[in-house]
Design a protein that fits this description.
156 residues, six-stranded mixed beta sheet, Immunoglobulin-like
């Protein structure tokens, strides 16, 4: 039935359109971070610069009962002056759907180089925080987190 034929209803037209669109299938791959994708995400942020251990304090519980809401705090030892400050804080993970958890841009007027938030963890994994300093250096800290009830699980 076309729209101009007698008896054509809105329902018939919509069902015909729907039937035509169902014939087209789209295959989407679920996002999946891996340790290699995390390393690539980190390289996209720091480029070829070396990353030093220290100056960054990463607080995340070592054992998490439920991965749906995990406390995260990152602080950097910095005077936060006009010439010596934290430009950005970046947090990465190995096994969530995306390797980038959060990036926060700061400046000397922030007063403190500290952030706190909550995030989801898909599974037990390593979390890495990287501080980008005003002098172009990068500092980091990492923590292993064991998750007993995972979040970010598809099909549930």
């Amino acid at each position: 039935m076309s729209k101009n034929e007698p008896g054509a209803t809105r329902r018939a037209v919509l069902l015909g359109t729907l039937a035509g669109s169902v014939a087209v299938t789209i295959r989407l791959e679920p996002a999946q971070a891996t340790p290699e994708r995390m390393r690539t995400a980190i390289r996209n942020v720091v480029g070829e610069a070396s990353i030093r251990k220290g100056r960054v304090e990463l607080e995340v519980p070592p054992l998490v009962e439920n991965g749906n809401t995990v406390a995260l705090s990152v602080a950097v030892d910095s005077p936060m002056t006009a010439t010596d400050y934290v430009k950005a804080l970046h947090v990465f993970n190995e096994k969530n759907p995306q390797p980038n958890v959060i990036s926060v841009h700061l400046g000397p007027r922030a007063g403190k180089a500290k952030i706190s938030t909550r995030f989801r963890l898909a599974d037990s994994q390593m979390v890495t925080a990287i501080a980008e300093m005003s002098d172009g250096t990068f500092w980091s800290a990492s923590a292993d987190v064991i998750v007993t009830l995972a979040a970010c699980v598809e099909g549930i």
